[in-house]
Amino acid sequence: MADAEADAATGAPDGPRARRTRLSGRLGLRARVTLAFAVAAFGLSALMAGITYFTARATFLSERRATEQRQAFANAALVQNALRSPATDVTQLVESVDTLPGSRSVLRTNGQWYATSISVGQSAIPPAERALVLSGTPATQRFPLAGTTQEVIGVPLPAVHAAYFEVFSLDELAGTLRALAFALAGAALVTTLAGAAVGRWASSRALRPLAGLTDAAVAIADGQLDTRVDAGDDADLEELASAFNRMTANLQDRIEREARFTSDVSHELRSPLTTLSATVSVLESHRGELAPVAQRALDLLDGDLRRFTRMVDDLLEISRFDAGSAELSLEEVDPGELVRRAVAAAAPVDEDGVRRPVTFPVEVGPGVEDLRLRVDKRRFERVMANLVENATQYAGGVTRVLVERQPALTPGVPLPATAIRVVVEDQGPGVPETERDHLFERFYRGARAGQRASGEGTGLGLSLVAEHVRLHGGRVWSERAPGGGSRFVVELPLHPEPSRPDATFASEELR
Ligand SMILES: Nc1ncnc2c1ncn2[C@@H]1O[C@H](COP(=O)(O)OP(=O)(O)O)[C@@H](O)[C@H]1O
Ligand SMILES: [Mg+2]
């Protein structure tokens, strides 16, 4: 039944399609929130950086141009004054003009060019600007020169038939702007990373209540149906917590009702069964007086009655598991001794009421004798009895039983033992792969069992085995035995996990 539920939950193609609510996309919730925060931080910081950069650039450039123009016009006035006197040495005049660092003067007078630097003559001035200024219009132009940006301001001096140009390099300003851009890009990067970190932190914090919910769901899946969640004083979680608790309460109620029903039915069937058994016993004692056909009918009745009684007993046991009222009465035992005793007790009884001796070996692996296992002996004996009985019924009997330490004792590797494995092997036909997943379901009987009109089995044996083992915190499975046949492995933990307390949503630091 547990597997059938799992099938439904995963929406297996052959099971009924369960309704599923999709909780998230391809990326995890935390990753998505982190990404969103990072993208938002990047967008905002890039916008701010862009605005800052372009505003600063415009301001710097206009201030720089105002300074340049002031200087160029002052120098032009100076040159014009000097040129009024015919004795002026023009070359000396151009060189004596006071310029900003990195700027140069170019003068045209009497159809000739004079410049402070040989590298920057009239050729450094774009022809359009040259023509414009020489025709009498002051002009300013920015232009690239050998990988740098230059700005030239031309002032016509018509009174002395000359024109004065001053060429400024914008390199220094470009350097400043580059440094500013780097600083702003760095700040944007840091802001983006900070945004991602804040997103990660915020999502972890917001998801923390989910951890409580997950714990509670796991506890419920483990059968602790009385688990409830507590939203603390968080109003946002109140609704979720109460919906979750309502769901769990309904589930618990339903399961308990079903278990009670099974238990009631089984109890009700018990007394008529006792009467029937007593009647059959009476008939058995007068067997000789019965006609042969009545004797055969009596045998059939006896067989079915025994099977029915067993089914009712098994159902009662199962209903206790379902109601959660099955309790362990644990004793500390030597695992090897436990298995030997359980196997001996599981041996069939012959007609005279004498228990047959055990015909197969019980092998106790290395390191097992040093361990002590806490186990409910009655339940463990039921487990072994079921496995031995199945092997007898379906596989010609058990060939050997192994008791092993888990993990295996390896020389030089001091790993502590965590569990004990009890393996029951046979040389029978084995369990077909398709049946293996269903063996432990209630009322599941294999194809072979169905063919055999043994009338003994009920299909509840292995499901009870699984319940007993699960109650111990262990697990049981079936696999192919090395030489054919099948092996059933029961694994019991040496230190079962303590049952978990009620889950709470909020952890302490959240409150
Ligand atoms: N040792 C085994 N070898 C082969 N098949 C087995 C073995 N043990 C169990 N089975 C199969 O598993 C089925 C379920 O077993 P079980 O739950 O004990 O029910 P039952 O014995 O009442 O049929 C059996 O009907 C049988 O087909
Ligand atoms: Mg059985």
Give me some keywords for this one.
disordered N terminus; Helix Hairpins; Beta-Lactamase; 3 domains; five-stranded antiparallel β-sheet; single chain; disordered C terminus; 511 residues; binds adenosine-5'-diphosphate; Heat Shock Protein 90; five-stranded mixed β-sheet; binds magnesium ion; alpha+beta; 12 strands
3D structure, described in words:
The chain is α+β, with helices and mostly antiparallel strands. 52% of the residues lie in helices and 15% in strands. The protein has helices at 2-10, 29-84, 90-96, 127-134, 171-221, 235-285, 292-322, 335-346, 377-395, 433-436, 447-451, 461-471; strands at residues 104-109, 112-115, 139-145, 148-157, 162-169, 331-333, 362-364, 373-375, 398-406, 419-426, 475-480, 486-493. α9 (377-395) runs antiparallel to α12 (461-471). Residues 1-15 and 500-511 have low confidence and may be disordered. It binds adenosine-5'-diphosphate and magnesium ion. Magnesium ion binds at residues 386, 389-390, 457, 461.
